[in-house]
Design goal:
heterodimer, A: OB fold (Dihydrolipoamide Acetyltransferase, E2P), six-stranded antiparallel β-sheet, three-stranded antiparallel β-sheet, 18% helix, globular, B: alpha+beta, Gyrase A, domain 2, Elongation Factor Tu (Ef-tu), domain 3, 3 domains, six-stranded mixed β-sheet, six-stranded antiparallel beta barrel
Chain lengths: 127, 362
């Protein structure tokens, strides 16, 4: 099975994606990651205004069978979280790059995004 | 390449080939999920699903003293079984501690003898236990470990009888719960038992390993993995070996584990004398439901509403049927007798809920 790896995102080897959108960076988990987890039932996210440091855990995603930490791709301040996930965590399964996004970060240094895995490198990792 | 477990041991393989995600379970490599746990779970509750449960052990016991040997090594009353009947039971040691839970089948008259079904990876230990005690007690019985000769397929759900009925010469309506009959399924010799571990009506089929794929393929319905098997049994409050009991890590009597109904103290069995004095345990397995979001999992601490520790979760999940977090935990017996407020600590955060008596779904 081959998984979607959009070219407009950068990736962590822990399967988060990060995409630049109107000055902020939107973050979620990859299609591969949601498939590994199975049915997502709960997503725990930080609060708006929280400062996050690249590489630290920012939250948790729980599926019926597993629990997994979520890691920060770029340092910055949380400007938004996806509140739809509170009542509809299954959006992470249904649209991991779309309605299943998790948070938006105002990055301290947008250029650090380029240090993350390229789509090709991430594709190699999950092959 | 053969799959290995975390210690590099080669994993046992089902005779049925599955093109899906697998996991190591009791030394076997078994399917964990075919579509999604939610889809598979809903199929079994709403219509029908099939499970490859070839990881379950099969120990055949025959000969003049077969019934006596089983009687002395299991907690339930084997003498109640007529040919073609089965019972749920526990296997305890001298301390009354559960080594396994199992179903003992007294086979139909055409194939005299007994069969019992230890949990995954327990077949060798249980075979050894039966042989050792047979010899110690000088009983005349033949004990065979048939685990690698048999495949086992469970077909479960309200539409299971209709589906299986299309593929067998047996009259399924004549099979009561816990009955077993010999017949043909998909043109293959099989034992068909009206047993299962999902809480739904259903059947478990035993056939020769080389015929297993024929049976599996003939039963056209939702394939289900160990993930859905776990959520289905948890909603019923059924025990899972290794989680609700483990002879070393979590030694429990059948009374603590809530299966006192499977203990007959009027029979003679290993552990009986200890258990006779253990009918009112200080702790019991209790159902816990949370009203706050989060998934209670094995090892999490259960506390009073004030935060005083009470016990530990043994297994838990987000119930697919209820959409609510559910768990089993060992708590002081008073918590089994009435609904009481409790909390489960999930990653340091107390989540409010209450105790309840399983099943969680009716």
């Amino acid at each position: 099975m081959s998984f979607e790896v959009p070219d407009d995102c950068r990736y962590l080897d822990s399967h988060e994606w990060a995409r630049r959108e109107n000055g902020t960076v939107r973050v979620g988990i990859s299609e591969f990651a949601q498939d590994e987890l199975g049915d997502v039932v709960f997503v725990e996210l930080p609060a708006e205004g929280d400062s996050l440091t690249r590489g630290e855990a920012f939250g948790v995603v729980e599926s019926i069978k597993a629990v997994s930490d979520l890691y920060v791709p770029v340092s910055g301040v949380v400007t938004a979280t996806n509140e739809d996930l509170v009542t509809a965590p299954e959006l992470v399964n249904e649209a991991p790059y779309g309605d299943g996004w998790m948070l938006e970060i105002d990055p301290d240094d947008p250029s650090t995004l380029e240090e993350l895995l390229s789509p090709d490198s991430y594709r190699e990792q999950i092959e | 390449m053969r799959a290995t477990d975390s210690l590099g041991m080669s994993l046992r393989q089902s005779p049925i080939t599955h093109e899906t995600k697998t996991m190591a379970f009791g030394g076997w490599e078994m399917p964990v999920e075919f579509d999604s746990i939610r889809t598979e779970h809903a199929a079994v509750r709403g219509s029908v699903g099939k499970f490859d449960v070839s990881h379950m052990g099969q120990i055949a016991v025959s000969g003049p003293d077969a019934g006596r040997l089983l009687q002395r090594l299991t907690t339930n009353d084997v003498s109640e079984l007529d040919p073609g009947e089965a019972q749920y039971t526990a296997i305890t040691d001298e301390r009354g501690v559960m080594l396994d839970d199992t179903v003992v089948y007294r086979l139909p008259e055409s194939r005299p003898g007994y069969l019992f079904v230890p949990n995954a990876g327990h077949d060798t230990a249980m075979y050894d236990r039966w042989v050792t005690h047979r010899d110690r007690w000088g009983l005349d019985a033949t004990v065979e470990n048939r685990t690698d000769a048999y495949a086992m397929v469970a077909v479960q759900g309200p539409a299971a009888a209709a589906l299986l009925g299309e593929h067998t010469d047996l009259s399924l309506s004549a099979l009561s719960r816990f009955d077993i009959a010999a017949g043909r399924v998909a043109g293959v010799d099989a034992l068909v038992a009206r047993t299962g571990y999902t809480g739904e009506t259903g059947f478990e089929l035993l056939c020769a390993t080389d015929a297993a794929e024929r049976v599996w393929d003939a039963l056209a319905c939702q394939p289900c993995g160990l993930g859905a098997r776990d959520t289905l049994r948890l909603e019923m409050g059924f025990l899972l070996s290794g989680e609700e009991f483990h002879p070393e890590e979590n030694p429990r009597t059948p009374f603590e584990a809530g299966i006192g109904f499977a203990v007959d103290l009027d029979t003679e069995f290993l552990g009986r004398d200890t258990l006779a004095d253990a009918r009112d345990p200080a702790e019991r397995v209790v159902g816990v439901m949370l009203r706050e979001r989060g998934v209670p999992r094995g090892g999490y601490t259960v506390t009073t509403a004030d935060g005083d520790p009470l016990g530990q979760v043994t297994s838990g999940t987000m119930s697919p049927t209820l959409g609510e977090p559910i768990a089993l935990a060992y708590l002081p017996t008073a918590y089994a007798e009435a609904e009481r407020p409790v909390r489960v600590e999930i990653r340091g955060e107390p989540k409010n809920g209450h105790t309840t008596t399983p099943p969680f779904v009716s």
